[in-house]
Hints:
Low-confidence stretches: none
Bound molecules: zinc ion
Radius of gyration: 10 Å
Amino acid sequence: MTKVAAFHSKRPNDRNVYHDTKECTEGDNIESYNRVSGTGGRPRCDHCSRIDP
Ligand SMILES: [Zn+2]
């Protein structure tokens, strides 16, 4: 598991969560130009929580 700085997506159709692991496929699917650093005040992604409980 690789921890990364929290980021979230600015795409309107994405779930309102933030990611903080490198292995999260959902976070990995966010194009770099759609990534915004920080949590955005959102809850943590459940995939990330499973990767890094
Ligand atoms: Zn995630």
